[in-house]
Amino acid sequence: MANKDEWRLSVRPLPNEEHGDEMSDSESKNEKAEEMKQAEKKKNAEEKPIAPPGGMGNFNRVLAFGDGLDKLMMAICFFSAIGAGIAMPLMFLVFGKLVGSFTGFFTPNTNALHPPLTREGFQRQVNKSTMYMVYLGIARFALSYISMFSIRISGLRISARLRLAYLRALFKQPVTVIDETSPGTIAARLTTNSNSIEAGISQQFSLAVQAIAFTLGLYIVAFIKSPILTLVASGTIPIVLITYMFALPFINKNYYTAEAIKDQASSLAFEVFESVRIVVAFGARGRLGKTHEEILKRAMVYDHNNGPLYGLLLAPMFLAVYGTFALAFWFGIRQYTRGHITGVGTIIVVLFSVLWAVMCIGRLYSPILAITKAAASATEIFAVLDAEVPDVSGLKDLEVPVTSDIVFKDVTFAYPSRPETTILNKLCVRFEAGKTTAIVGPSGSGKSTVVGLLERWYYPAGTAAAQATSTTDNIDESQEIWVKGEKASFTHATTTESIDPTSGIFVGDVNLNQIDEKWWRINVGLVQQEPFLFNDTIFNNVANGLAGTHWENETKENKLEMVKAACKEAYADEFISRLPLGYETMAGKSGMKISGGQRQRIAIARAIIKQPALLILDEATSAIDVRTEKIVQKALDRVSHGRTTITIAHRLSTIRKADKIIVVRGGQLVEEGTHEELLQNYEGVYSGFVRAQAVEMGEENFEDISIEGQDAVDIDIATKEGSVASKPDEEFVDRPFLSSFGLLLYEQRARWLLYTLTMIGAIGGGSTYPVQAYLFAKAVEVFTFAKADLIHRGNFWALMFAIQAVAVGIAYLVLGWASSLVSSTVSTYYRQEYFNNTLQKRIAYFDRETNSPGTITSRLSTDSAQLQQLLGTEMGMAIVAILSIIGSIIITFIFGWKLSLVGVLAIMPIVIIAGYYRVHLEQSFEKMNAVVFATSSQFGAEAISGFRTVTSLTMEDTITTRFDDLLTAHVKKAIAHAKYSTVVFAFSDSADFLCQALVFWYGSKLMLNGEYDLVHFFVIYMAVIQSSLGAGMWFSFAPNIVEATAAANRIISIRPTNKEKSQVQTLKSVPHGSEAAGVEFRDVHFSYEEREVSVLSGVNLKILPGQFAAFVGASGSGKSTMISLLERFYDPTSGQIIVGGDNICQVDPESYRKNLSLVAQESSLYEGTIKENVSLSVVQSLATDEAVEAACKSAQIHEFITSLPDGYATMIGSRGVALSGGQRQRLSLARALLRRPQLLLLDEATSNLDSESEKLVQQAIERAAGGEGGPTIISVAHRLATIQNADVIFVMGSGRVLESGSHAQLLGKRGVYYQMCQAQALDR
Predict the structure, then answer these.
(1) What is the pLDDT of residues 1225-1266, one digit of tens each?
(2) Distance CA 403, CA 406 (A)
(3) What phi, psi does 98 have (nearest 5°)?
(4) Nearest 5°: phi and psi at 672?
(5) If residue 431 lies in a helix (H) or strand (E), which one and from where to where?
(6) Cα–Cα–Cα angle for 1036, 1037, 1043, nearest 5°?
(7) Is the distance from CB of 1219 to CB of 14 less than 8 angstroms?
(8) 239 φ, ψ (degrees, to nearest 5)
């Protein structure tokens, strides 16, 4: 995995294993099929192409999501932004007139070109012009406020509407599309992508309009004053435009490619955090961290490619700015001396108009880049919105005989991702109305596929399926089925015309494809193998079953009665009523706050609450203990009476009473009949299944001993944690910017060369402002000289401006390049550190509601992005601003302290205070956004991860409504904040007008008194104004500073504390042993940190080295908790756990876990090859080909792997989707055995498998246990047939051991275990 060049999101389908465990019997392949495999292998070996970035059409489409109010707000913003932009050109007219007044006042009488002004005339003109500046400042303030506030409203509303449309569109996609999309990717699109879009259509849009109006207004003013001088001064602009046209497409391409690769890192991170227990158990943090790091390094290459391009963007712009000074003064003096222009005022107006127009191109950079990013970010979202949506409308209500038989007629089906592999091959089955039909068969035989077809997730015999089956009709069943010729495309929805009217799925005489999809699902109740519950109350989870029905809008009181009735039928009310908050108890993310059996009963209640005509139970009792299974089975028997019920089961004891049992194999019907009828055929498939699951009961007489009402057996105490609010992260400390962000920069001091180059560039950029002030003052002064001196001195200072232009261009080239490299390098480093440190957290950290996989993945993505934004050119420009402030203040006091004091003490504080409050308001605004976006991201990712549950319950509208409510609340809060924060924005935007008016007014007073000459005044004026603009530039990065500070605090807070480090260092290291370890629990008590009730209450037991021990008991009895304690996911509240003679709480967890292996109920596999997944449990040096193959042989999966074209190099897809359940579980076992553990822990390792798969896995486990020197094995099981050969069995209940002994000994006691065996016995 770590050495792959890409992190593929789609995988090549796998052929299937010969054994009954797999999808179809296969051994040999025809020649043409083999050629196709090789071609496809070659295709998949190539780099997955990345979609091209989106054009501006995407941006227009985003704006189209606005309604009438949004369009009105955008129109208001548009015109007010134009007004705010035009204010500056008008101010330059006033400024030019003032400069003319100043030079006129200081011109000697001997200068015929410029006659002097009187004192009264000078004062009158200055007063008049300064008032114009004040009026323009007030107008700009009002217009800026209106434009920014109106666009903030529309931006938030459009962004929320787009997020909602994206989630809604996802629910309209085929299941195959959702299966290939990681919830982490979806979370990133709902946060990072959507945030980029929001920035591009709100503040940045307003700034872009304002900048465009500003530029056009400047040129209009300049051309009015002097067209030819304007054209000459604009000579540098083509340089800027050509550079931008060259660089921007490459920047956009590199940015989009890097983001696409980072999405792959997010997908991996989500998978890792979702299965963090397995990652920790196998010490795989380092291996997966390395894979994550390699992905980030690939992205960093593209970020680094943008370094010189960012430098090219900055350098020509500033080269052009100071080149404009040189050209304007040089040519302006020529025009002035020849009488073509009236005075220096014309030159000043044209100069500053063109100068600011050139600088405005730079001001357009950020808005254009933000808009471009918004368009690029929208590409992935619009790809979903533009995806073809099938027409799922059709017949409903009285047009459909919903209570009739359901008939499969010659149904053939192949999954869209594996069109060459036929799952159902002309299956003919009748599900009789009002009766219970059970489907049994090995993994891959098509049982769950029947559920997918009935739920309309897939469609049988579509155009692609027909194409696939047409080539396989004459192929022998023992061969693997492949499509000949070109791979067929699969359309999610097939029209009724494309379906053979004699084949398909029929409800009565109506083809299922002709029935309205949503109406059909309302009439179908589904309980899946892995019940998915939302992070909501139990009441709401059960009430979700009413979505789409006529009860959906009932009052809460009526719904509560229905919920309670359904829960009583499902025997869920008994544990819910004992919870402190009852039906208002939170289920936790994915229902993790309650046990598996309890989740299953809630799911059953949810399925039956709407009284469906068809009830489908897909492994509905697979994760339920014996007692729960018995009572739930009684409930299911009752609710299925008189209702068409289809049951898929691996545990055959649950379907003995079915009216008909259908046995499928290889996608075809092989047997059908009742339990008794099928048992008569001793050689039959079903009889073999029964024998595989038989529990040896000895010679006792079977008595029906009721287990209800017995307190000793009523051990289903649930997890009475109540609805405890998740704790905030105690580790998080809110540090100020310098101590948090500064610490990260200090830690990266090894990058001193890049830092040095950045500082050199920043010093060069910052020093230009005070130098420019001096040069400008000297250039203005020449207009008071006689003609000869004016030309000579004017040309000299124009040359000085040209030299400055070259120096500044070089400085900004270095600054842009170096700062970009710093940002990508440092942000990549800390994103990886963030990932590694998060994985170092204890499991309790991941149990908190605020730390769901989606939320953590989102933080990982957004925090590093915020660091990168600030560390890039933004950081360089901020340093330039600070240096320009310092340099400008110094030069002002050198040339005159009075005006400097007014400028620095009166003007600077206004700008700085405005900036401070801007930071403060933005900080609170960003904090609120962070919480809401994290919540919406978590909600969206959770909803999509339960996609099948959502669609089966027709909850699409319910989910999107909740998501809409969440976003609407966010918009309201954000708008309320924007009312006040926008005032500061507007004031910051207009304060310089008022400042300039004050400087000119007070400066004129000092000049009239003879205290200042022209040079002194203009040096101070330019320096003060530039320092003010520099301060404004610094505070304009306030949002980025706030975001980066919060991100830096999270990165620092997630680090292990000194206390944690010292604890690990003082703990004893455990050597890797080769002999089995003994286990002893000594009065162990335990309760979860967020739960009130003790899960374990004084557990005492002893397991000898090499023994095969088993824990059995009801849901919530503490079985899996004991496995978690042995793995040191948690530590006991009190008591001791002794493994191999050591108290496990006093040894180093990492070294201790090297002697353990875990096989969990869910086989957590990762995208990559088979070998990479198996070898994940050991260090690279131990994962030799021989060792991996030996482990796979022990797990009885080696033969299947070698039958694949790529063998151990076969890619298995995200979460191992290309493998069947039995194959995934045996790979998990192989991964566990590769460690050669002293202690092997099996937590429901076979509960999700069919009989044949279970038998193979069980044989592998017993083979591992049977050898001399084998590990001690502890197994948690509900199926007693899997542990009846255990050396010792511990029966758990009420958090303690109720009984212990061997299978025979416990039967002799005729206690709880005996009753459990009776419930599962199949041969009575």
Answers:
(1) 788 888 888 888 888 888 877 665 666 666 776 776 766 665
(2) 9
(3) -65, -45
(4) -155, 155
(5) strand 422-431
(6) 140
(7) yes
(8) -60, -45
